[in-house]
Amino acid sequence: MSLFKVFDIAGSALHAQSVRLNTTASNLANADSVASSVAATYRARQPVFQTLFDDAGEAAGVGVADIVESQTPLAREYRPGHPLADRDGYVFVPNVNPVEELANMISASRAYQTNVEVAEASKQMLLRTLALGE
């Protein structure tokens, strides 16, 4: 594998983890939102990663295949004074678990940082290789 290919792989991983961080941020931003119906209620989203292959069939990075909504059931809360409450006094709340989302955010940010370090180490190795010719 070419050392230059490492940058492509690390770059694709940085993009994938960036998408993961953005979906986590969206989930956390909507964690406290409420709605008057099941259809209008926000559902937690998660990216689905896939391996990318080059023409030779070798792994060449990671991509985001899709962003899927969680199938965890939505909860109803009794809030009779809320403007979005139904006639029984219930509102629907998202299926976002803030603790899981924070753990997901920490994991994604560490993976992002690791890929930055991989790219930096590769850069340093290339610079040292070039310095050998001096």
Model description:
The chain has 134 residues and is of the alpha+beta class. It is built from 2 helices and 4 strands. The chain has helices at residues 3-29, 98-132; strands at 45-53, 59-69, 75-78, 90-93. The strands form 2 sheets. A two-stranded antiparallel sheet has the order 1-2. It has a two-stranded antiparallel ribbon with strand order 3-4. A hairpin with a 5-residue loop joins strand 1 and strand 2 (59-69). Helix 1 (3-29) runs antiparallel to helix 2. The model has no long low-confidence stretch (mean pLDDT 93).
SS-derived structural category: alpha+beta
How many separate domains? Answer: 1
As a percent range, the share of helical residues equals 40-55%
Residues in β-strands, percent: 15-25%
Low-confidence segments: none
Instruction: Identify the overall geometry.
Output: elongated
Q: Write down the secondary-structure element order.
A: HEEEEH
Number of separate strands: 4
In order across it, which strands form the biggest sheet? 1-2
Query: What is the typical, i.e. mean, pLDDT?
Result: 93
Instruction: Give a quick account of the main beta sheet: strands, pairing sense, barrel closure.
Output: 2 strands, antiparallel
Main location: other
Domain Flagellar basal body rod protein N-terminal: 8-32
Domain Flagellar basal-body/hook protein C-terminal: 88-131
Family: Belongs to the flagella basal body rod proteins family.
